[in-house]
Amino acid sequence: MTTPSHHKRKKKTNDVPRQSHLDLARLRSNAFLFIAVVIILINTIKSVQDIRQTQQKRKQIPFFFPGYKFSGLESIFKDIPSIGYYTDKDLDDEQHAAQFAQAQYILAPTILDWNNLDHDLILFDCSNAETAWKKIREIQAIPLKRNNFGIILARRTKP
Amino acid sequence: MILYLFPIFISWTIGFLIIDVLFPRNKRPDFYVHLFLGLGLGIGISSHLLFYCFAVFNELSKPAINLAHLVLLICLILIRNSMNKKNSPEVSRKGMIESPQNNLALLMIGFALIPTIYQAFFYPMGGWDAWSVWNLKARFLFLGKTQWRAMFDPVLWRSSPHYPLLLPLMNVWGWIGYKNPTPIVPLWNSLLFTFLTGGFLFSVLRRSVSVLLSTAAVLLLFTLPYFTKLASSQYCDIVLAFYLLCALACLVMAIRDDSKQFAAVAGISLGFLGFTKPEGLIAVGLIVFSSLFFLWNKGQSINKQSLIGFLLAGLGVGLLPVFLFQLYFAPANQTFINGLVSSQKPSNPARLQMILAFFLVELKSTKWNGLWITLAIGMLLSMNRCFHKSIRIVPICLGLYLLIVGFYYYINTYFEITWWLKVSLSRILFAVIPSFVFWIFDTIGLLDRWPGRRE
């Protein structure tokens, strides 16, 4: 049979490790919070530096989306499901691939069929005007429109 | 701005009411969980409604879309009102709203979104995949009339025609009040999902962790420059990150609270997750099998069958558009070569070695500013608590997900592996970060709750 004092003693001995566990747990939790706060502070400094650097760059060279070179043509392609897109540029090159993808974005829902010259309407995006004119003559197409960025729209005369 | 906010408000109301209808009045989630979960669910449901309208009318029918939203809204209000009459009185959740600590923390989180806003406006057209994949699809849906299916044309193989449509449909929903597909809507959507991810992470952590730890968890993400860049790039990865977090957190809440309602919400979130990206669908398969296993072996639960039933019911609702899309719309993946059977491009040990090396290089990369190391320290400090049975499902699902993604990198030999890992692995890791942060910070919270107990 246990006496009340025995109960008291037993409870006390159980409480000691529990309290130490609790303290240790809080210590670990606070240590993690401290590390997280340090990382947040470092991140904040880097974020501010990053934003300032980009702001400086934007002051020198304003943002330009190369796909805008093709804007204005979408009204011509209204209800035309797909057109040809001829380029002598290497699409493995990231910059040229980006321009092609952006052209597709601006002119969607018309599909740009890359280097397929069988379409009635063909868009010529060449590295120089001479290459474009040479190809237009070769496929016996008639130039319809040329914009300020050297993009030429031509229509095939023969099927 | 108002033209964008109006459809978002409609979605939020729908999501908020769905939670009201699902949960009995005395079991409704905390106010902030309700708020953020409601918005996430609502936007997902709006995208589903748009998908059904496209499937039925074969074009963007604004009257049908608006009518579908109106009918759903009225139905939800009627069901809610009739349920409120029958149900027990509502338990006040004012404590959480009025808690100055929580409000201050959310204000700080909102303030911490400033770097992401800056990043978003530095690149208003988003990153490469924004104009090449997601926003391109959205333009096809918005402008294509009855020719919207042209976006599945094999000619557009560079734009991954087989990718699901959740984000493009969300963007179309944002454009619903506009005449033209203005680029500002995808930008707002990326910011909205970033805030939603942070807000939801805060509110679910707040259930078990101190306000300081919950806020630190979100600030750790929102102050990381690489996270802000990817979050604001208008990619689908932030949407995937949100629904992955949503599904895992709701599963944890379902297991802890024995809540079939949270199991249902987890199921719906999994459905949205499967409609984000192909890897989202992989994650759905993994999480469903893991959660069925966990829920079935939930020894002390008296209603484990109803938990599973609600999870599967939610999943059925959420996955229906995914099945329809895969069955009737999605073209075959043109960028896949099975390296295990291909003699021209076989998977070899060097490829596997490269994948493993890249994983390690990526995790210790300086662009993460020590985030992964911090999480690893958290794991060590939590000792065995990070595999506590109430949260075990999170690391198991995340671990299996990364393993399967690694396996996919190995067997699909279409792309040159170094280039592929370089452009995509960081985004795979980005999408799992909020769930990893939830896991580690919640585990640290467990330290305070069950000191010295071995479970």
Describe this structure in words.
The complex is a heterodimer of chains A (159) and B (455). Chain A has 159 residues and is α/β, with parallel strands linked by helices. Chain A contains three helices and five strands. Chain B is built from 19 helices and no strands. Chain B has one domain (2-88, 98-336). Chain B is mainly alpha-helical and 455 residues long. In chain B, α9 runs parallel beside α12 and α10 (211-222) packs antiparallel against α19. The interface between A and B is large, with 43 and 50 residues.
Question: What portion of residues of chain A belong to β-strands?
Answer: 15-25%
Distance between the termini of chain B: 51 Å
Helix and strand sequence of chain B: HHHHHHHHHHHHHHHHHHH
- What strand order characterises the main sheet of chain A? 2-1-3-5-4
Q: What is the number of helical segments of chain B per DSSP (H or I, 4+ residues)?
A: 19
Q: Quick one: overall form of chain B?
A: globular
How would the blueprint of this fold be written?
The complex is a heterodimer of chains A (159) and B (455).
Chain A: H1 4-60, E1 82-86, H2 94-107, E2 111-114, E3 121-124, H3 129-138, E4 141-146, E5 152-156
Chain B: H1 2-22, H2 31-57, H3 62-86, H4 94-98, H5 100-111, H6 114-122, H7 128-143, H8 166-174, H9 184-206, H10 211-222, H11 225-231, H12 237-257, H13 260-274, H14 278-296, H15 304-329, H16 349-363, H17 371-381, H18 393-411, H19 417-449
What's this model, at a glance?
The complex is a heterodimer of chains A (159) and B (455). By secondary structure, chain A is an alpha/beta fold.
Could you name the key traits of this structure?
heterodimer, A: 159 residues, alpha/beta, 2 domains, 5-stranded mixed beta sheet, 3 helices, 5 strands, 15% strand, elongated, disordered N terminus, B: 455 residues, mainly alpha, 19 helices, 0% strand, globular, disordered C terminus
